[in-house]
């Protein structure tokens, strides 16, 4: 619909003009983003886990995150693929911590975008104030989420299962160990928490580089600051529309509103969105192939919530 309403001939021509440059967009800097986000996840553990195992599990998990509502299905896939490498309680705790740190990093990145936007024509616009409200709501929601994690949220879930008559003693024991792991992580590993946030923030910044690169290849001259505003506001739209798989449609409309507010053309916004979607589809396919090739090992027993033990895993 958006393509048909915004000069489809111009959009098709600008995308066709990418030629060999499309291959660059499909590989860079998205591959670096994957590396940075994997490192962010690695520091969400209280033990050392092999990077290549986490990298493969993350590729597979993100493919499911982009194709399922609420972007949560992939987190379960990541934890499942780590069977035989780390105990289940440690892997579950790590994906929760990583989800928290990547969202904190996104909030910091959105704050950066708001600060940069303050000096542009967006100052005082409805879009600008909308981003401020989203930033405030996100900060409140994140604070509550971290608080709940440190207060034993899975223990509450286990007691609820008992009341519903779901007699899963073993499952409740695992949930209790996850609570212990989360509490211990936040109490004893501030350095790893900070590093996890830092690597995820670096991944968000690389998204600005991708935005700038795509627009330059499409013939749209923008500064890196403008690209940062576009990318930061796009991340806010993703957070606000997390119930929609890959924020399909909502993200395109958000980019269109942002481009127009910045004085850029509507066809440029749609062309940019479509190139992003092509890159997304390619990496979903890669993730699904990785998922098909990975062979989870036999699960190993829980070692307690901390997962502290011999460094490294085979």
Notes on the protein architecture:
- The protein is mostly helical and 314 residues long.
- The chain has one domain.
- It contains 14 helices and no strands.
Which terms summarize this structure?
mainly alpha
User: How large is the radius of gyration?
Assistant: 21 Å
Total beta strands: 0
Shape: globular
Q: Please, what is the average pLDDT?
A: 84
Order of helices and strands: HHHHHHHHHHHHHH
Structure class:
mainly alpha
Low-confidence parts, pLDDT < 50 over ≥5 residues?
303-314
What's the helix count?
14
Structural domains: how many? 1
What is the share of helical residues?
Answer: over 70%
Q: What fraction of residues sit in β-strands?
A: under 5%
Main sheet record: none
Q: What separation lies between the terminal Cα atoms? A: 50 Å
Could you give a short description of this structure?
The chain has 314 residues and is mainly α. It has 14 helices and no strands.
């Amino acid at each position: 619909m958006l393509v048909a309403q915004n000069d489809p001939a111009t959009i098709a021509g600008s995308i066709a003009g990418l030629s060999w440059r499309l291959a660059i967009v499909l590989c860079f800097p998205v591959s670096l983003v994957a590396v940075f986000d994997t490192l962010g996840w690695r520091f969400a553990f209280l033990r050392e886990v092999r990077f290549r195992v986490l990298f493969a599990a993350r590729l597979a998990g993100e493919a499911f995150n982009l194709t399922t509502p609420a972007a949560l299905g992939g987190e379960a896939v990541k934890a499942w693929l780590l069977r035989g490498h780390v105990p289940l309680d440690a892997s579950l705790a790590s994906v929760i911590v990583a989800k928290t740190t990547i969202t904190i990093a996104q909030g910091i990145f959105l704050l950066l975008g708001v600060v940069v936007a303050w000096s542009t024509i967006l100052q005082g616009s409805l879009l600008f104030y909308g981003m401020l409200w989203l930033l405030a709501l996100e900060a409140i929601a994140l604070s509550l989420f971290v608080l709940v994690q440190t207060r034993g949220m899975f223990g509450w879930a286990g007691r609820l299962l008992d009341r519903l008559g779901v007699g899963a003693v073993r499952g409740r024991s695992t949930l209790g160990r996850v609570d212990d792991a989360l509490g211990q992580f936040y109490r004893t590993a501030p350095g790893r928490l900070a590093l996890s946030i830092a690597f995820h923030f670096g991944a968000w910044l690389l998204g600005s580089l991708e935005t700038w690169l795509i627009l330059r290849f499409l013939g749209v001259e923008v500064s890196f600051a403008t690209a940062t505003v576009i990318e930061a506001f796009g991340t806010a739209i993703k957070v606000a529309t997390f119930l929609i798989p890959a924020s399909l449609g909502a993200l395109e409309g958000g980019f269109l509103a942002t481009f127009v507010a910045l004085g850029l053309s509507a066809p440029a916004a749609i062309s940019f969105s479509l190139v992003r979607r092509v890159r997304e589809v390619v990496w979903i396919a890669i993730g699904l192939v990785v998922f098909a090739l990975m062979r989870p090992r036999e699960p190993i027993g829980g070692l307690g919530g901390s997962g502290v033990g011999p460094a490294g895993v085979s």
